């Protein structure tokens, strides 16, 4: 049975964000700004429905979805694109596949103790973020 990811998580660290954003064709000014942000995550996980809020001082981003059901995701706030997104479990990892203009785009979340890990991919770039559960 997959873990329940419900909780509020504070940013701890990230690696390779600039190269990941470059792979998404984000301009240099916005890349520098995003690399300075320390986002928090709030996850509400109820059965096969999830809401994942990424919270920053600049802008929040909300994903509201049913597991295993493909939907059109508007990534306008991120990079101006839309893609066909499916989120499902692979063992204990929550895996998102985003089909669209960019190859190999998606992410995966998993828990290690009280830490939430996020691995984001686009093209050949990988960015890893770590968050500490606070409630």
Structural write-up:
- The chain has 135 residues and is mostly beta strands.
- The protein has one domain (7-133): Lipocalin (Beta Barrel).
- Helices cover 12% and strands 56% of the residues.
- The chain has helices spanning 17-23, 28-36; strands at 7-15, 40-46, 49-55, 61-66, 71-75, 81-90, 93-99, 106-112, 115-122, 125-133.
- Strand 9 and strand 10 (125-133) form a beta hairpin.
- It starts with 6 loop residues before the first strand and ends with a strand.
- InterPro entries: Calycin (IPR012674), Fatty_acid-bd (IPR000463), ILBP (IPR031259).
DSSP, total strands: 10
Q: Specify the structural class.
A: mainly beta
CATH topology: Lipocalin
Number of helices: 2
Number of domains: 1
Shape: globular
- CATH arch. level architecture: Beta Barrel
Give the helix level as a range of percent. 10-25%
What fraction of the residues are assigned to beta strands by DSSP?
over 45%
CATH superfamily: Calycin beta-barrel core domain
Mean pLDDT: 94
Distance between the termini: 22 Å
Rg computed from alpha carbons, rounded to a whole number of angstroms: 14 Å
Layout: helices, strands, pairs:
Blueprint: E1 7-15, H1 17-23, H2 28-36, E2 40-46, E3 49-55, E4 61-66, E5 71-75, E6 81-90, E7 93-99, E8 106-112, E9 115-122, E10 125-133
Antiparallel strand pairs: 1-2, 1-10, 2-3, 3-4, 5-6, 6-7, 7-8, 8-9, 9-10
Helix pairs in contact: 1-2
Short description:
This protein has one domain: Lipocalin.
Key features of this structure:
2 helices, globular, 12% helix, ten-stranded antiparallel β-sheet, mainly beta, Fatty_acid-bd, 135 residues, Lipocalin
